[in-house]
């Protein structure tokens, strides 16, 4: 049976991450907590809106209501990477070669490892950001579609259009597909080789969490009473194929999903604070955490897939130690 080491905090948990095998919890009040031979914390922002680990997991990149972008290191040090006046930093993304992207209003800004920046203006607000798995290519989710920028060159951006508000964006790990979350209860996708559209609809609520499986074979999503897991093994992705429905519960909704780093197993967090693990092959389930006080809002596996860090809407956080 998995064991849970709880950590009761005082604010909405925006993100959980592992830096050098140490669990970190970024909260909406601007504090980043860590469990490193005891409970320690660092004040990164006056109000935190977004956080993601650097590629390689050395630091946590954060954006806040104070207009700053910071990098929090494993020892609690805070480096201010950018300051953008009064504009809220609503999205951050970590890229190759130490590059970082952030959204401030209608601007997407890329900061390179040498401190130089490049800004890309858009007609409407920038909602989501993602770097491609290979090369220096940045996807920006916006109203009526996605724009692909090439920050290191003067190349013309690629516009991928689809009517509606796109709120988040993600490349598949092999770089063949681009998928967005939408303001309506749906996902939209493009096959990048030919621009072919993929429509993934039917959710009872908005998709706010998603996670790619190992090698990009599956895409798990929240927004329903089960984790909806789309197959991406075929050349056209999930088109014409039914998704898996894992961890179905009739009395609550899935709020967070996190694929195991090496196996086709999904951690599933629910609106009542419960966490299950479910296997794609046979839908077998293991209870990882019993229901709590509030919805699960953040989850992250460590590198070996033996521990799962989690956080909730009301700050209930902790680490589940797992042996499958």
UniProtKB/TrEMBL annotation:
Residues 258-322 form the Anaphase-promoting complex subunit 4-like WD40 domain. This is Anaphase-promoting complex subunit 4 WD40 domain-containing protein. It holds the Pfam family ANAPC4_WD40. SUPFAM superfamilies: Quinoprotein alcohol dehydrogenase-like. Transmembrane segments: none annotated. Residues 40-197 form the Pyrrolo-quinoline quinone repeat domain.
